[in-house]
Design goal:
- By secondary structure, this protein is of the alpha/beta class.
- It folds into 2 domains: about 170 residues, Rossmann fold; about 140 residues, Isocitrate/Isopropylmalate dehydrogenase-like (Rossmann fold, 3-Layer(aba) Sandwich).
- The protein has 13 helices and 11 strands.
- The chain is globular and about 65 Å long.
- The two termini are about 20 Å apart.
Length: about 325
């Protein structure tokens, strides 16, 4: 059983409520039908109930009838959510009239449902841009305690058991933060370690990557990684982390032993933290395309509750997979 199948199986046991605010989007409806058919999660669709039911019937999606459908225009908790939004945006100049209008927006309604405990997580982005998905999430759900940075992790399934954790490598940030400071990079490391535990069920061995290994090169960019490593250790005492390490020193045992003898991570890393988004995004795509690795993600991390963003070019299976991942993130281990 591969890791995605494991996460789907675990999601069935967790029985989480995942809200899909793009309820009338065709791929989202097809994914909801499959999710409900397989029991991966309880689904909340946001949108016009009549439109959703007509679309589902026209496509023969019989399992959509098991979903909870929430109409933004006629919702019994609408005033409660307006109050909740006013509180979340206190001091930001938001009027009650403007808040009432925002609650009609499915993306705001979805995060307010999570904030109020009416849903456990959200998956969106098939129809909306990343910024539109993240803005309400950051305003209402906000980030986890001690974390101010949202980042994007990928699970790289390399098919080569000699690397990472039986071929699995979790890497970040590959999707969100262009040029993190040392403090932000430390937060990304801690968040990615938590993601590795929650989603992959592995004990993280975190490598902070650079073009330098243990002082082999002197440069402010390497110094940033060294500082981030020290800060991450302070943030999460006991975390198995080391840096700065070059990529080969991080994942190849013989190179790790040569370049960083005595390191508890070098040559055995299963979590890779890139120094910036440019490096991370290029690296995972090269591994994906040239080495034929399967890249699962991006999985957004750092939020106080699991909220994940799809590509607008996503497939139905992408949505199903991300719902399973979100359900796993919503477990107590996240």
């Amino acid at each position: 059983m591969n890791i995605l199948d494991q996460m789907k199986e675990n999601a069935r046991k967790l029985d989480k409520r995942i809200v899909l605010p793009e309820g009338s989007e065709a791929r989202t409806l097809e994914a909801a039908n499959e999710i409900l058919d397989k029991g991966i999660a309880r689904v909340i669709l946001v949108g016009d109930p009549v439109e959703i039911k007509q679309l589902a019937a026209g496509k023969g999606l019989a399992h959509v009838e098991k979903a909870t459908i929430v109409d933004p225009a006629r919702h019994e908790k609408r005033e409660l959510y307006v109050d909740l939004l006013m509180k979340a945006r206190e001091g930001k100049g938001l009027t009650r009239e403007a808040a009432a209008d925002l609650v009609l927006n499915p993306l705001y309604l979805a995060v307010l449902m999570i904030k109020n405990g009416d849903a456990d997580g959200e998956v969106a982005g098939a129809r909306n841009a990343t910024g539109d998905v993240l803005r309400p999430a950051l305003q209402v759900v906000k980030t986890r305690p001690g974390i101010s940075v949202v980042s994007g992790a990928f699970l790289l399934l390399t098919g080569k058991p000699e690397f990472g954790e039986n071929g699995l490598i979790v890497c970040a940030d590959c999707a969100v933060m262009p040029n993190p400071t040392a403090e932000e990079l430390a937060q990304i490391a801690v968040s990615t370690a938590s993601t590795a535990r929650a989603l992959a069920g592995i004990e993280p061995r975190v490598a902070m990557l650079s073009f330098s290994t243990k002082g082999s090169a002197r440069h402010p960019l390497a110094d940033k990684v060294i500082k981030a490593t020290a800060l991450a250790r302070e943030m999460m005492p006991g975390l198995n982390i080391d840096g700065e390490l070059q990529a080969d020193a991080a994942i190849v045992p013989s190179v790790g032993e040569s370049k960083a003898p005595g390191s508890p991570v070098a040559g055995r890393a299963n979590v890779l933290v890139f120094p910036n988004l440019e490096v991370g995004n290029i690296a995972y795509k090269l591994v994906q395309r040239i080495a034929g690795a399967e890249a699962v993600g991006p999985v957004l991390q750092g939020m106080a509750a699991p909220i994940n963003d799809l590509s607008r070019g996503c497939s139905v299976s992408d949505i199903v997979n991300l719902v399973a991942i979100t359900a796993n993130q919503a477990s107590n281990s996240y």
